[in-house]
Amino acid sequence: MLTAGITGMLTGLALIVAIGAQNAFVLRQGIRQEHIGAVVAVCMAGDALLILTGTAGIGALITRFPEVLEVLRWAGAAYLLWFAVRSFLAAARPSALAEQAPRSKNSVIATTAALTFLNPHVYLDTVVLLGSLANQQGPDLRWTFAAGAVAGSILWFSILGYGARALAGVLSSPRTWRWIDASIGVLMVILAVRLVLH
After folding, report:
1. How far is CA 186 from CA 5, 15, 88, 152, in A?
2. Is the pTM above the cut of 0.70?
3. Which of 73, 104, 147, 180 is the most exposed, fewest CB within 10 Å of its CB?
4. Which pLDDT tens digit goes with each residue over 110-127?
């Protein structure tokens, strides 16, 4: 039983640790120390919902109806390109971390939710892949595996969001943010292109 939980945690971590749009946003919000509790909570809840949904068997539904992922693919690509444009605009007008205008909590939560749920890869990773792997554990251990994967997500987003605060002093100059925003913009474009061509 413990082995299934640890396997679930390690598998979940392996899938979510890769830097993508969601992780980049969590890191930025953590460094800015802006609504990070809400950001981390949305990411954790989103992952938990998707992992548990996949474990409950919805992964089979998405596998059977791939057009759902097709819609998510194009919506996700459009959102990533919009996010890239915002990042490039921020890079063109960099400001120090403390000087940036704060965003409303609702705006931050909406962006976090969009980066979580408009990414087709999150459905492939959590619902289809983790759901399938959980169900391979058998009826007795599938929920233990899923709980381990959810625990991995909680661990990762806590470390990423709250650990970023330690970097706030180092990353507070406008020049640093110019590079960060430009890099995030490039990453979003690459992810969008990969979604369209995948």
Report:
1. 36, 21, 8, 28
2. yes
3. 104
4. 999 999 998 877 887 788
